[in-house]
C-alpha cells in the first residue's frame, strides 16, 4: 500500500522517486499527462536490460529497445543527442550490459531537470499527498 511517508520521500530526491516501490508507476502516470512517458519507460527498460544474463536475450532486448526508443521515428522515440544515438548504434552491434548507459544517463538527467520539478509542483502530486494526509488523519480519529 502506498504510504504518505513514501510519497513525501519522493520530494527529497529524484532517486528516491525512482527507487521506491510505487514511485516509477505513479511518475509514469504523471508523465502520460505531459506526453513524455517514453522517458520513464525507456529508463525502466534499461534497468531491466542490465539484469539480462543470457546473450541471446540481451541481443533480442537490445533490438527491441533500439526500434522502440532510439531509431529515428521510433514509436516511442526519446530525445537524445546525435552522438549518444550513434554510440547506441555502434554498441548494439555487440550488445553489452552497458550499451544503453549513455542514452539512459541523458534521459535520467532530462527527467530530473525538467519533468521531476514539474511533477512535485503538479496538482497530481499535491492531490496524492493531500489524500494520504487526510486518510492518515481519518484513521487516527476513527
TrEMBL record:
Coiled coil spans: none
Q: Superkingdom, according to UniProt?
A: Eukaryota
Q: Name one Pfam family in it.
A: RGS
Q: Which residue numbers delimit the RGS domain?
A: 13-129
Q: Which InterPro entries match?
A: RGS, RGS_sf, RGS_subdomain_2
Stretches that traverse the bilayer? none
* Protein name from the UniProt record: RGS13 protein
